[in-house]
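Good morning C.,

I know you're traveling, so I'll keep this short. The sequence:
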Amino acid sequence: MDSVRQWHAAYTGAHESAAFFPRPDNALIELTGSEREEYLNNVCTNRIVGLTPGETTRAFMLNPTKGRVLADFLVAASENALWLDCESGCASTVVALLQRYYFGQEVEFRNHGDEWSIGSLQGPKSGEIVTRAGATLPADRVGAHVETKIGSTAVRIVRWTDTGDVGFRLWAPKSGAKAVQAALIAGGAIVGDEDAWTVLQIEAGVAAFGRELTEETIPLEAPTDNAISHDKGCYPGQEAIARLWARGRPAKHLRGLRLDTDRPPPPGTLLDGGDKPGVARITAAGVSPELGSIALAFVHRNYCNAGTRLGSDNLEAEVIDLPMTTVKT
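The tokens, ready to paste straight into the viewer:
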């Protein structure tokens, strides 16, 4: 299957059936020790204390003075450990920060990046495909996870959407990753690529680490409510988040754009609003089979209402609501 056909098959699969996206830059970190919950709770944005085995939440680690995003991960609690599914190459940063804030607490952390493979199965029939592969599904609530098997390979499956629809993260030993992927394909999944992944996330309004969430981003500027607790107490960067939360109006917001072009522009492209230059900066763009040329962009708060027209010398765009699936033509 050529790359274009594969792209469309994965896109359609994620909307109508299921698509499997290997996430080779993600990595697992394991925290053990009697003080692991309190320790992680004190250094990240979300409430970890009270997370029970079988539950998962999302969290960030932030720049301590500016409150900008340094790392993005899921935290899954098991009986004897906390497992961090670290996004897009940030595991080394997480380890470095854990070491920085370690002052003799009863906690140990280990990077399992060389041992585990992480993939994302997304789409309305992803649960059926997991079941066909012989695995047990986690409970029907966001973040539920379960240790099970696909064939002879032990896997952990986390109920988590990366594209706005039903979805799962699958963690498998690297020695069994190919067998797991083959079982999912045999069950009806289509293997997706990064281009399809990006368009699906643009449509769903997903703010991704390394793309929208960077050292230049305060998380309140994007849809990240599932990663922040506003009443759990102090952590590095908390003061900056609390000040912005109290004001209630970030200077910019992540918004969708419908583009008047057949050639989506590269990340970093700036758009003007009326007589004011550079009111929007595109973070990701692509061509959706259903919506045409679309993008995510950080847009100045005075220009972020749906229907606002933005442009540059050779590009015009209209601000649209997120998720874009609610505004399909």
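Safe travels,
E.
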